[in-house]
Design a protein that fits this description.
Elements lengths: L1 H25 L12 H5 L24 H8 L3 H8 L3 H9 L11
């Protein structure tokens, strides 16, 4: 339940970013509530900008560390749930498997 709540919070935070990026792509102006009149001045500042740390590249794995079948059998997933996970892209499979053992009374839920 804690992972689900954390995922929901992350999605809600990203919603604002997605709307902003979509407005930039569409060529629309920023909504009035998010307009920052000082942004133009900050962008013109002669002070050096702080260096952003480089992102670490993700390992180039083509598949999950553990097979979906192995994960499903170790966690007691039903056939339909295992099939659904097996039909996902490798990135999704890796993410689900990386979350660790399934918690709760119904692992297939």
């Amino acid at each position: 339940e804690r992972r689900l709540a954390k995922a929901e919070q992350t999605i809600m935070r990203q919603e604002t970013n997605i709307k902003y990026l979509q407005s930039c792509v569409d060529g629309a102006a920023m909504p009035a509530a998010q307009y920052d009149p000082m942004a133009a001045l900050r962008n013109r500042s002669r002070s050096p900008r702080p260096m952003m740390p480089a992102l670490k590249p993700m390992p180039a794995n083509n598949g999950p560390v553990m097979s979906v079948e192995e994960f499903a059998s170790q966690n007691g997933l039903d056939e339909k749930c295992a099939e659904s996970l097996n039909n996902q892209q490798p990135e999704v499979q890796r993410h689900v498997i990386a979350q660790g053992p399934v918690e709760g009374r119904n692992p297939s839920a």
